[in-house]
Structure formats: structure tokens, C-alpha cells
Amino acid sequence: MFNKILIANRGEIALRIIRTCKELGIKTVAVYSEADKDSLHVTFADEAVCIGPAPSKESYLKIPSIISAAHITGADAIHPGYGFLAENANFSEICAESDIKFIGPSPKMIRAMGNKSFAKETMKKNGVPVIPGSEGIINDVGEGKKISEVIGFPVIIKASAGGGGKGMRIVWEPGEFENAFRTAKIEAEAGFGNADVYIEKFIENPRHVEIQVLGDMHGNAYYYGERDCSVQRRHQKLIEESPSPVLDQGLREKMGEAALLGVRAVNYEGAGTVEFLVDKHKHFYFMEMNTRIQVEHPVTEWVYGVDLVRQQVLVAAGENVETLPSKPNGHSIEFRINAEDPEYNFRPSPGKILSLHCPGGFGIRVDTHIYGSYSIPPYYDSLIAKLIVWGQNRNHALARGRRALEEFVIEGIKTTIPFHLKVLEDRRFLSGNFDTGFLDIFEFK
């Protein structure tokens, strides 16, 4: 087992990792930018090292500074959290060369599954249903247009190395293709340093359902149910839940086994998420794989009784993945609380928190790094808290979520709490009858 783990991240995920490390008796090192000197992850870690100015590229994305911090503090492992360097194969490789364990997949695995076109081909070869599309990277506009016409419009152009909606363009008709193709490549290069894109058939009105997987270095691999992440704005998730309202146990098992076919084929090690689109006929198609812990991992933890971060650490230390019940217990929903103003097109709302009251009671969990008088910096993602609720069934969880949101007070900035309360009044959401286009027709007033 590790003696000391450096957390190469910030905010609530850094705190989340620190808590598990403390329970395992492992010392922790926080790294922070100058803008985060007052953040709670700095306070609660055993040691803290400033790694640069506020901009991410000069701090949380600066590999030499992070490796130096690990050497200076004697850390023998690094947990990357999510975002930043979590899926950076070069970082994983440098950790290995520096005799520091990267808590995540190998560089080879990150490159393989992080390359969406390669991951799609791997899944296809192993019998996992995939969305019709290009066989690989498309560099020529003319070639891309021909492939799109064969597939049939609408199509979606996607950055091979990316996610979160960057480098992604939906093309509804041939005349829009060239401009969308060039724009996607420019965004991909700017966002990920890789301009490669590929093309897929655009599945209209799907559900976004992801399977949580874990593999160890002994060849064991398991899945822990699914999460429904269909409530999205510009491909950014806002509400996630487990189990999915659209899956029954039979479909759950079918999707889980399909995910494991691909995972086992590449001897995957660590936590990961195999993401699918589910159409209205309940046919599912592989979309991509994320080789890291996800923001929404707590809903899986609650309904399957597993500490996923603990499992990451144990697997990285050479232990076996724990086997757990294959059926969910109850229902869990996560509401992402962002420092944004939903009344003004979700405009960012950084600033000082004047008052804070977090909800409590049975079945309530709040993962956050904020506190009263804390100033939210404008340099990073707007996520400031995650409200996760558990109930005996979906209706119970919805009622508990409404109560908890009404009890959640954050003054001094605008947040997405009013938006979530409005969603909980929508009949389509309450009935479970919604898809990834839900927010396109949802009115927030």
C-alpha cells in the first residue's frame, strides 16, 4: 500500500480523494494554484504545495511542477481525479518514469481507449454494438462528406481526443458539412492539442447511459450498474441518476456484459466508464470510454455500496477488485450545483460566498469545497458542489432531492439550485420520459 498520495487536482474531487486516503491510513499532498490557496483541499491535506499561478496551464496542467511536488514531498503515488491530467497518457508515462504510481490506467490504455475512433473499433471487434460511422480519423472534407452521405444525415463530427462537447458538431444536411468539419477540427486542436476528428450517425432523441467498470492487474473486471446522464446542456451533464429509469434488469445486465467484453479485451486496469446511447427502441450503441473516475460516481457508490475511489487506490496497489451485488439498492440522484445564473443563459457567477447552509438528514450527501466567506475564482470549472440524494425508489429520491434543494442556501453568488427545483416540477422528468434533448424544450423562468 502507498505511504503518501499526491492529488493532482482541486475542489471537491481533491477533498473526496483525501477523505478516502485518510480512511486507508495514507498521507496526502495537495497541490494548488495561487488562486486556490484558501481552498479546503489545501487545509485538509497533510501537506500542500503551490504549483503556480491561477491559469490551469501554469499550474494544474503543468506536469513538471506536479512531478517536482511529488518528489519534494516523497509521494509514491499520484491520483489525478477527473479533468486536467486525468486522461493524459504523457502524464501517466512520466509518472512511471519518475517511479511514481499513477492511480489509473497505463499510458497505453489511456491512449487506446482515449482515442475514440480506436476505442470504437475495439468494441466493434469484440461484439459490442456501435454507432455507424467512419472507420477511423477523417482528415479530408471531401472524404468526410462522402462518408456522411453513405451513413445518412444527420451526422455528428467528434474530436477523437476530446469530450464535454468540445470539437463536436451536428450536421443536419450536406451544405453545412464543410464549415462544421473545419470548426470541429479547430476546436479540437485548441481544446486537446489534437485536431483529429471522426464521424458518426447522429442518434436523435437518445438516452445517455453509462456503465461503471473496474478492472485490476490480475485480469478481473466487473461492472457496477449504470448511470443515466441524459439531462445535459451543451453536452455538459447537470443531473445524473442510478439506476436509469429506462433500463430494466435484463437490459442492465446486457449492457453491463457488453461493456465488459470491451474492457476485458484490452485487460483494462482501474476505474472507467463505458458510455452508451440508448434509442427509443431500447437498442444501445457504444459511444466512448472514459478512463478515469467520473464527476457523477457518488450515485453508483450509494446504490451499490462501493467506495469507488477506495477501489481505485486498492487496485493501483495491486489488490483485487471487490465483487458487489449486481442489483441496485434503492435510487440515487445527483444535482450538480454550478456557480452559474440560469436566468441569463447559465452565465458564470464567480465571487464571494456570503452565507452557506448545506442540507442534511438521512439519505443526503453534499460533496463540496466551498464554505462561508470563500471566494470562487473565475479561472476554473463552475462546479462548486454536488448534492446527492438516496431514496428507496425514484419517487422517494425525487421527493428527498426537492427537500434538500429547498434547504440548500448559497448567498452572494448565483447558482443552479433554482434550475434544479424547476426541473423537479417538470412532468416529463418526473415520469422518467426524457432524453438528451430535454433541456432544448425545457423553459426556465
Jot down its keywords:
445 residues; 26% strand; D-amino Acid Aminotransferase, Chain A, domain 1; Dna Ligase, domain 1; 15 helices; 3 domains; Rossmann fold; alpha+beta
Explain what the structure shows.
With 445 residues, the protein is α+β, with helices and mostly antiparallel strands. It folds into 3 domains: 4-103, Rossmann fold (3-Layer(aba) Sandwich), CATH 3.40.50.20; 132-201, Dna Ligase, domain 1, CATH 3.30.1490.20; 207-441, ATP-grasp fold, B domain (D-amino Acid Aminotransferase, Chain A, domain 1, 2-Layer Sandwich), CATH 3.30.470.20. It has 15 helices and 22 strands. The strands form 6 sheets. An 8-stranded antiparallel β-sheet has the order 13-12-9-10-11-14-21-19, with helices on both faces. Strands 3-2-1-4-5 form a 5-stranded parallel β-sheet. Strands 7-6-8 form a 3-stranded antiparallel β-sheet, covered by helices on one side. The chain is globular.
Describe how the helices and strands are arranged.
Blueprint: E1 4-7, H1 11-23, E2 27-33, H2 40-44, E3 47-52, H3 63-73, E4 77-79, H4 89-97, E5 101-102, H5 107-114, H6 116-125, H7 141-151, E6 155-159, E7 168-171, H8 177-192, E8 197-201, E9 207-215, E10 221-233, E11 236-242, H9 249-265, E12 270-278, E13 284-290, H10 297-304, H11 308-316, E14 331-338, E15 340-341, E16 347-348, E17 351-352, E18 355-357, E19 364-368, E20 375-376, E21 383-391, H12 394-407, E22 409-411, H13 417-423, H14 427-431, H15 438-441
Parallel strand pairs: 1-2, 1-4, 2-3, 4-5
Antiparallel strand pairs: 6-7, 6-8, 9-10, 9-12, 10-11, 11-14, 12-13, 14-21, 15-16, 17-20, 18-22, 19-21
Helix pairs in contact: 4-5, 7-8
